[in-house]
Amino acid sequence: xxxxxxxxxxxxxxxxxxxxxxxxxxxxxxxxxxxxxxxxxxxxxxxxxxxxxxxxxxxxxxxxxxxxxxxxxxxxxxxxxxxxxxxxxxxxxxxxxxxxxxxxxxxxxxxxxxxxxxxxxxxxxxxxxxxxxxxxxxxxxxxxxxxxxxxxxxxxxxxxxxxxxxxxxxxxxxxxxxxxxxxxxxxxxxxxxxxxxxxxxxxxxxxxxxxxxxxxxxxxxxxxxxxxxxxxxxxxxxxxxxxxxxxxxxxxxxxxxxxxxxxxxxxxxxxxxxxxxxxxxxxxxxxxxxxxxxxxxxxxxxxxxxxxxxxxxxxxxxxxxxxxxxxxxxxxxxxxxxxxxxxxxxxxxxxxxxxxxxxxxxxxxxxxxxxxxxxxxxxxxxxxxxxxxxxxxxxxxxxxxxxxxxxxxxxxxxxxxxxxxxxxxxxxxxxxxxxxxxxxxxxxxxxxxxxxxxxxxxxxxxxxxxxxxxxxxxxxx
Length: 477
Hints:
alpha/beta, 3 domains
């Protein structure tokens, strides 16, 4: 998905509807809750442990009655009160009243100028990679002649306005801004409007502002949470209504996106992050463990699963995980995630491992096998596939080019990564001629009458009758 929590546990959502920073989440976790026995953390299982797999796959995607009610109230207030509601709700949830809500251009420029040189270079290189990848996705309009002067075709048109949601508050994710803004730019979206919660100074984090400036974004607003989604969907005097809303957020943001879908398009209603590693005896257990941990640190509902037919690898990776966790800053979050939603699953055969991984349809799938390209031919369901031991998941999160906004919770069976197509729509085009209508009109009318839609049929027959009259008149003259 994205390199940050998408939906945090309810205990982390008591005072605000914007995702808490991982550091704040960590501070909120009591010491007594973080001490898990080694036997609980990333247990060794078999495919018969269906209860564990069911728990992993059902851990996201639903919202509590409290979240639903809160979001309904927020959206209603945005519709009726506009900017006043935006300011009041931001003050309530973020503890600050931004003035102005729209970030001035001078502030964006200042943030870019203050950016560390090494980080600027890294962000520029990542942006170039992401742009180059997404340019390959661009579709062109097309038209074809179908005989008798008939022309059929399809126009590919960018949306007029796109809304990007980037988490903020005490957390900040410039990578999410790169992954959402660049496909919109490549698609040709004319106006891109970015919302991001304010810091204590009433503005989004300087790194988010600097990244926005690097990308040439002009419309940036210091508002987050469900109120930001409502403003983008319904429009206010300050924040214009957009055509689509994309980007990550917590349960309140996700619920708000789900509720405004239809009025606007959205990318997805995703759940917590997840990784699946499919490995054989050639895999390096240290690399496998490191990559499992890279996802488990997202939040306490993140999932990290190794599936392999090689039990010694599973045991070695399990040992590596348990050895590495204590020295990581987010050890408490990792321990909880692995205790609840981690697993090293040993199958009888590689065929069984592949089948199980296809059933799970994970967000991130790493292939640590002797021939990962051959293994990939057997994979049907995954959000993104990382081939070989050097294609670690964070490479995709930040830098390589493919999008890190991915389907979660098994939705990779029917959903895809965010891309250029999320910011365009297609229009069918047809230009019929009198000759072709004369040839096919009776068939068209017959189908319409079979559906008992007489007006449809008459719209065709009135033209056919006119043509008959014209021909008769020509003969008489």
